[in-house]
Amino acid sequence: MNLFDLSGKTALVTGASGGLGQGIAQGLAEAGADIVAVSQSSCETTLEGIRKAGRQGIGISADLSQADLLENVFTQAMEFNGRIDILVNNAGIIRRTPAAEHSREDWQEVLDLNLTTVFLLCQLAGKHMIAKGAGKIINIASMLSFQGGINVPGYTASKHGVAGLTKAFANEWAGKGIQVNAIAPGYMVTNNTSPILQDEARTRSITERIPAGRWGTPNDLKGPAVFLASSASDYLNGHVLCVDGGWMAR
Ligand code: NAD
Question: Where would you find the membrane-spanning parts of this chain (predicted)?
Answer without folding.
Answer: none
